[in-house]
Design goal:
With about 140 residues, the protein is of the alpha+beta class. It contains 3 helices and 7 strands. The chain has a 7-stranded antiparallel sheet with strand order 1-2-3-4-5-6-7. A hairpin with a 5-residue loop joins strand 3 and strand 4. It is flat, with a radius of gyration of 15 Å. The chain starts with a helix and ends in a 5-residue tail after the last strand. About 20% of the residues have low confidence.
């Protein structure tokens, strides 16, 4: 893949992440994203984009900061080598007990699993599945 094409894909991915990933999250998870935006205390500081050797998108997301710690924030997407979406994870850092992440898995562009977990990486605790989004 030429450098121009890679740069163009990178620019498109950055615009996509910053402009539409929030909309996708709201649509996918039937969640009032405007409410989440107003309560999120972490913001995207650095878009992260990785490619497979074949040039297909492998991973996209945002690195942010919460309480001085660099962490994943917002919507992250993982793809297979064919470029098909296989997983999204929405990271919501917050105070302990109000933190969570939603992991959605896909097969052939259809949701096969969607689960809510505590944000185990943020507080270095054991991963636990939650029944609802913490308030």
């Amino acid at each position: 893949m030429s450098n121009f094409k890679k740069n163009l894909n990178l620019l498109f991915a950055i615009v996509f992440i910053s402009c539409s990933c929030n909309k996708s999250f709201a649509d996918e998870n039937e969640h009032d994203f405007n409410k989440t935006l107003s309560t999120d205390s972490a913001s995207c500081q650095k878009p992260i984009i990785e490619y497979f050797p074949n040039g297909k998108l492998k991973l996209s997301g945002c690195q942010g900061s919460y309480n001085g710690t660099g962490i994943q924030v917002g919507l992250w997407k993982k793809y297979n080598e064919k470029g098909e979406l296989i997983e999204t994870t929405y990271y919501h850092p917050d105070e302990f007990g109000k933190d969570y992440k939603i992991i959605t898995q896909y097969e052939r562009n259809k949701i096969i699993s969607k689960k809510i977990y505590n944000f185990d990486d943020l507080y270095e605790v054991e991963l636990k599945e939650l029944s609802t989004i913490p308030k």
